[in-house]
Amino acid sequence: MLDVEMIMSNPELVKKILGKRGFEVDFSGFIELRERRAFLIKQIEEVRALRNKLSKSIGEYKREKKDTKELFDEIDKIKDSVDKDEEELGKVEELINEFLLKLPNLPDEDILAGDKENNAVVSVNKDKPVFDFPIKDHVELATSLGLIDYERAAKISGRGTWIYTGLGARLEWALINFFIDEHIKDGYVFLMVPHLLNYESGLTAGQFPKFEEDVFWLQEESPKKFLLPTAETALINVHRNEILDVNKLPKKYFSYTPCYRREAGSYRSEERGMIRGYQFNKVEMVQFTTPDNSDDAFLELMIKAETLMKKLGLHYQVSKLAAGDISFAMARTFDIEVWLPSIEIYKEVSSVSNSRTFQARRGMIRYRNEDGKVEFVHTLNGSGLATSRLLPAILEQNQNSDGSVNVPEVLVPYLGGIRVLQKVK
């Protein structure tokens, strides 16, 4: 949620910054609502003060044996007036809140305007792999090596799903365990979070109300719950409605979860196999920190995600996203994109983002600074990492002419010493 005082003090500036996203907004109605709110609050306070004054007079009237009927009639009129004003104030505040919840975050000053065509590649790791034989795509490799069963997954679930089988399941689990070990080593606290979340969790994370249709809802639940689209949605809410001790910041967490998304699967030719699905695995990192430490926290998350990619030995690039390509709740995002040789396309395997105070304002996540003042924390998140595109990249970038695949060295211990994935005989 945006800072209301910033909107009120300089609506044209906020409008201009949001324009970098291609988001158009008219603040005139919002400003009128805020002014009406201020008027109602002042009027309610004045009338309440008058009512309190009159109420104190009741005792004096009784001691002096005066008729209190007119006094009580006046107090009742005042009460009716306050009730009406409070009812209107509630409606006005609801309209204000509805308006604010539809506004995306302000992109940072250094973020370029425009959509994904203005994303900028800021670094590249390793050269693209070169092959002296006809290469196979990950679907053919995974099938021939007995790692993935697409047909049976479609039978029991539908399109956009897959079954990890044998060494495929072990390879997926090896990736997850490798990531978990690395994050624990770096001092992050491992949390196993619920997969069913309440509406407030989606609201705080910035996914609701705009993206309510992108998640799977359990309609029979009351109140309704949804399947988490990413562990970030749960992790960001761990400290919702809390005031944190500044001496205990930053808070650093990570979690492994499956992720469930309805928007998955446009089924373009480059998104076959495991590239896009309704369910995939991801290890997610988050930080809660002070504004002064926010940029350092972002850099740390970037280094952590890139370090995992480098240890896997994969060719990838890092892109700084333009304002229109940054997600609704974020102020800045860098994507790590892995190379898929068969389709000659980079696909995102990690997004590292800073929401500044946007999520914290929605979830009332605050800290008390050394002067005793309560302020909003900054929240950050980063994939560390998502596996559904990593496994295809590992297969394609590490394939051999005989159809076998070399296992990244860091995963060998997690696979019981297996270094090469061989064809199923």
Supply the key terms:
single chain; 425 residues; alpha+beta; Helix Hairpins; BirA Bifunctional Protein, domain 2; 8-stranded mixed sheet; 3-stranded antiparallel sheet; 38% helix; 21% strand
Commentary on this structure:
- This protein has twelve helices and 18 strands.
- The chain is α+β, with helices and mostly antiparallel strands and 425 residues long.
- It has two domains: 26-101, Helix Hairpins; 116-421, Bira Bifunctional Protein, Domain 2 (BirA Bifunctional Protein, domain 2, 2-Layer Sandwich).
- The strands form five sheets. It has an eight-stranded mixed beta sheet. A three-stranded antiparallel beta sheet has the order 5-7-6.
- A hairpin with a 5-residue loop joins strand 14 (365-368) and strand 15 (374-376).
- The model has no long low-confidence stretch (mean pLDDT 92).
Spell out the helices and strands N to C: HHHHEHEHEHEEHEEHEEEHEEEHEEEHEE
- CATH C-level class of the largest domain is Alpha Beta
Indicate how many domains the architecture comprises.
2
Fill in the CATH topology of the largest domain: BirA Bifunctional Protein, domain 2
Kindly name the structural category. alpha+beta
- Give the biggest sheet: 8 strands, mixed
Radius of gyration: 28 Å
Q: How large is the share of residues in beta strands?
A: 15-25%
Give average pLDDT, whole number: 92
CATH superfamily of the largest domain: Bira Bifunctional Protein, Domain 2
Number of helices: 12
Write out the strand line-up for the largest beta sheet, numbering strands in chain order.
Answer: 1-11-12-13-16-10-9-4
Separation of termini?
57 Å
CATH-level-2 architecture of the largest domain: 2-Layer Sandwich
DSSP helix fraction: 25-40%
Oligomer: single chain
Number of strands: 18
